[in-house]
Amino acid sequence: MSANKESLNFDAKQLRDKYRVERDKRLRVDGNEQYQEVTGRFSHFVTDPYVTGEPRAPISDFVEIAIIGGGFGGLLAGARLQEAGLTDVRIIEKGGDFGGTWYWNRYPGAQCDIESYIYLPLLEELNYVPKEKYTHAPEMLAHSRAIAEQYNLYENALFQTEVTGMSWNDHDKEWNLTTNKGDSLRARYVCMSNGPLNRPKLPAIKGIEDFEGHTFHTSRWDYEYTGGDTEGGLTRLKDKKIGIIGTGATAVQCIPHLAEASKSLTVFQRTPSSIDVRGNRPTDPEWANSLNKGWQKNRMTNFNILVTGGQQEEDLVNDGWTDIIRKLSMFNASRASETSLTPEEMMARVELADFEKMEQIRARVDSVVEDSKTAEALKPWYRQFCKRPCFHDDYLKAFNQDNVTLVDTDGKGVQEITAKGVMVDGIEYELDCLIFATGFEVGTDYTQRAGYDITGRGGVSLSDKWSDGMRTLHGFQTNGFPNCFFMGVVQGGFTANFPHMLDEQSTHIAHMVAHADNNNYHSLEASEEAENDWVATMESMAVINQQFLEDCTPGYYNNEGKPGNKSSLGASQYGAGPEAFFQLIREWREEGSLSGLNFS
Ligand code: NDP
After folding, report:
1. Which of 19, 107, 309, 504 could lock onto 221 through a cystine, CB 3.0 to 4.6 A?
2. Does residue 377 have its Cβ closer than 6 Å to ligand 1?
3. SS (H, E, C) 2-50
4. pTM for this structure?
């Protein structure tokens, strides 16, 4: 299909060329290797600023189920296991409390970017409706605690505790876990809910250790230094020159607060984010009171279907996310009437819709940002889902303030940090404080992200078993590692509303464990054959359009410009989409035989 400049108000070929040029500027041979692990001399970047390190005596005991990670995934697993009658559950958590992402991320302005009514887990179970459509971090942390209270998960929990090793004892059919607190824990089952974005990362920029000012990563916000809290009011910055590296979803939320409070703010940008309208609002109490039983699940499913390109009579969430997909599906009507279209023709139409949507995003920059050079630099030149879309009503406006400077590195990134500040294009920007909003490890090996390796039957390590890519049955279990369940982005139904997926996974795991328990089995494990079949299914259905990812500007969605890595986010998605995946595992449970699992 040829581009029609007149009717579309843009030239598709020119845009395609521009996107390619912008991508090429950013491609680097070192890909994911451009970042460094936050360990050793950098480990102060991950020190928990919210609690003091409480010493405690090592524990040595047995529980039926150990859950590693106390974020939404661990809480949901704990809740669904309790509901299934499995109460001997222990959550092991690195932080000083439950909450995971929302324990760590307390930066000013931190807010969910998926509607809170579908994002916060177990709302009906807790008889709770969040205060805003997009709620802020403290409410999510408080909700995490409320879940733990309701499901009695505090009693057995171990906080400030990191698992350091995990090995299977085939004789006793149990896992042995060691921790940084000297514990030696035994558990019949282990549920891995470590989170996909739990390890902050730093760019390996020359001189990063030389900076003599103050510095921290956004996931460990230093309120001692800035003053204020998650709602802002960073009063201690009024005479400070602040710099921030990164312009992803986190930076977009905290930059307006830094701009408001600091003497000067310099934003070092490599790639601009796509910033759409947020439109947050308080919850209407009348609406909240009108909700009927089952409302949350219906709303989650409605959203999930819509954002994966399906049809629903009503758009219940009706926000930027569903709008994007509506725009990207703007040729759906013609799709229905022109069934003769080839997949290539269809892709071409979706590409045009994508161009149109991104033109709208770029026009929004022009309409908000006063300085034309700054506006130009803030425009994203890539397709909508090359990076996580952002939504904010104050971010772009912040660049109109006199104390805010955008330093656009034209795709190159910051290349040098000095004792006094940041150097770009030979200019040194002197700073009192440098904040890293540089995100979290995504495309690294599963065991590196977890922070420990797992030794299965016969002494085989998970890192060895998965050295050529993940291998699982339905994403939950891998042969040779009995009674070990994976949660998160592991060969399952990835969805923009992450907690929805975690809830489906929790229900599934609880079902499998309850089945084993009711039938007096001591272990269950994916058979090799079932695992091979699932890997083949994943490969044959690889929905991720390789070409799309290759054309994208680098980011964690395409493994920093190197799609095809089998540990990457893209390699972990079930091709037919999350709803089809949820249905598949539901039908598998209903069928009853739990085929593909070996019990003993
Ligand atoms: P991201 O990985 O999205 O962003 C990291 C930023 O650092 C990018 O702008 C990146 O640029 C930049 N960067 C990296 N290296 C350099 C360098 N050498 N020089 C200059 N810039 C550099 O991390 P975030 O913490 O922003 O977000 C992570 C994810 O967390 C989000 O995608 C989202 O899924 C989630 N999130 C969710 C929120 C929510 O639900 N409310 C809120 C915040 C985050 P480049 O783009 O060029 O790589």
Report:
1. 107
2. no
3. CCCHHHHCCCHHHHHHHHHHHHHHHCCCCHHHHEEECCHHHHHHHCCCC
4. 0.93
